[in-house]
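Reviewers of the previous submission asked for a worked example of the structure-prediction workflow described in the proposal, so we include one complete record here. The input consisted solely of the amino acid sequence. No template or homolog information was supplied to the procedure at any stage.
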Amino acid sequence: MSEAAAIVPRSTRIPSIAWLLLLLVTLLILIVAPLGAMLVNAFMDRDRNLTAANFATVLQDSIYWEALANTIVVAGGAALVATSLGTLLGWVFARTNAPAGALLERICEVPIFIPPFVGAVAWALIAAPRTGLFNRGLQLSGLPVEANVYSLAGGYYFMRRIVDPVRAERRTRIAFERLLADARAPT
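From that input alone, the workflow returned the following structure tokens.
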């Protein structure tokens, strides 16, 4: 018997196993069972006969291909914009003495703490084509410009605001700079 096992009483090890089993059962009920049911139902028709017709329907209908193309365009564009801006801001925060840099860095961290659903509702209220607060202000000012959160450009902007890599980029750069400093240090 190892020293660690001798130090920890048996009574405290059993409840940890019980918690682990409870966690596994919960994961099975909440994740594996619904996914399994969905997979089984994907291969069944309305009369519960085994079929692949559901897949043929999805693969032949152009609306699904258009949705896939839009998803790839929005996700790729948002990733490109977020990474570019995150890299630029990460460099500015880590390598320069920007005025109010600490405040700007904290402001850039705010989207991390806002759940995506709350952000989606907020952007719909702000930039909906006909009813958004921003568009109402533009209409009252007489400007012919309209923001549309539901367009591809609006999707890019929305995804960029919700998924912000600035914090991760900055930490990566700082860690890399420390690694380089350690490598340059005389031994």
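The chain has two domains: 1-60, 62-187. We consider this example representative of the routine output the project will generate in years two and three.
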